[in-house]
Write a structure and sequence with these properties.
The chain is an alpha+beta fold. It has a single domain, classed as Beta Complex (Metal Binding Protein, Guanine Nucleotide Exchange Factor, Chain A), CATH 2.170.150.20. The chain is built from 3 helices and 9 strands; from the N terminus they run αααβββββββββ. It has a 6-stranded antiparallel sheet, with no helix packed on it. It has a 3-stranded antiparallel sheet with strand order 2-1-9, with no helix packed on it. Strand 1 and strand 2 form a beta hairpin. Helix 2 packs across helix 3.
């Protein structure tokens, strides 16, 4: 039997999935000036380099499906880099299991490696994280990692990252 509670849960899950998997076209480039990034390429160059899914996330501000990234459960020592430009972003020793479905870090290598931009898409107030060198969308940062130093959770799309294993 379908109850009102079941209906409400279904609607909330559907809306969450729509938000998580959608590409917020209305948010594209509103908060960024392309001249502020040192790595600039044409759309065709980005598409060729990144492939369909990474292009959708990095250049169109999409989101990969939760729990789909191999980086979600990678615990090797090394450095996570921007898939768009190779800039080092996060050290593996700042990665933690937030249980949210995306690789999570409590700090970037330094504040000059990323830019934090207000994001009002999907009727929410969040803080988007982009690569400071190429402007690629990485994910969002949330102040809810209470057990981590600084209390921040950088929730990052694995498809936006590369990994350089420490020798």
């Amino acid at each position: 039997m379908i109850t009102e509670t079941n209906k409400a849960v279904f609607v909330l899950v559907f809306l969450w999935l729509f938000q998580a998997c959608g590409t917020p076209k209305e948010h594209q480039s509103k908060n960024m000036n392309k001249d502020t990034f040192s790595v600039v390429k044409t759309e065709a160059e980005w598409r060729e380099q990144l492939g369909e899914e990474a292009f959708r996330v990095l250049r169109e501000k999409g989101t990969e499906r939760p729990f789909s990234s191999p980086f979600e459960h990678l615990w090797d020592s090394g450095t996570y880099v921007c898939k768009g430009c190779g800039k080092e972003l996060f050290y593996s020793n700042t990665k933690f299991d937030a249980g949210c479905g995306w690789p999570s870090f409590y700090a970037a290598i330094s504040k000059d490696r990323i830019k934090e931009i207000p994001d009002y898409s999907h009727g929410m107030i969040r803080t988007e994280v982009v690569c400071a060198a190429c402007g690629g969308h990485l994910g969002h940062v949330f102040p809810d990692a209470y057990e981590q130093p600084g209390g921040m959770r950088y929730c990052i799309n694995g498809v936006s990252l590369g990994f350089v294993k420490k020798p």
